[in-house]
Fold this sequence. Notes:
Blueprint: E1 3-7, E2 14-15, H1 17-30, H2 40-44, H3 51-58, H4 64-85, E3 88-89, H5 93-101, E4 106-110, H6 116-124, E5 130-135, H7 136-139, H8 143-153, E6 158-163, H9 166-175, E7 178-182, E8 194-196, H10 202-213
Parallel strand pairs: 1-4, 1-6, 4-5, 6-7, 7-8
Antiparallel strand pairs: 2-3
Amino acid sequence: MKKGIIFDMDGTLWDSGVSIAEAWNIVIERRELKKAKFTADDIHGIMGKTIDGIADALFGEYSKEERMDITRECLVYENEYLAEHGGALYEKLEDVLIELSKKYPLYIVSNCEKGYIEGFLEYYGFGKYFKDFESHGNTSLPKGQNIRLVVERNELTNAVYIGDIQSDYNASKEAGVGFIHATYGFGTIEEEVLTISCVEEVPVAVENYFKTVQ
């Protein structure tokens, strides 16, 4: 039996809200848009959404074509900005990744655009801890299908997804994998699930999960 741990990004591995807000505000200023500056809370509110959902939520006052164009520029520059400035890693993250990677293969699946996960791994040198990753930007598929892609191409027979919002849980159910809720992230889960209140609790929670499904 090959077990694996699949992580969400935002609200699970790091909080990039401040850096993304700064990047997007640069784009807004550059385009001379008459729009209030974004805050980290604004960014947290759209975490986990695909590009269409982000465009509708933050630039709904513009035409479909205009808001998609603005959002694409923001996302492209966001990756450049994060590659230079990074985000806020949750405490003890690397220590936990080192511990987990000794026993399990680790993966990432996010609804982000292409380059986001890649930039995260490169900036922090975390590529050595993860075996594979997938994103909406790479495949144009919803998160549940991307989780399933990672499970299938890595031949996992037992996997758990760690995320922080309801749509993460929904995606895990669609993919047929287990779920652990990172309550320190940006959302709540309606269902009763295993929970962690900080990154340091991941190893014990994962062990408890795999014990229940053996």
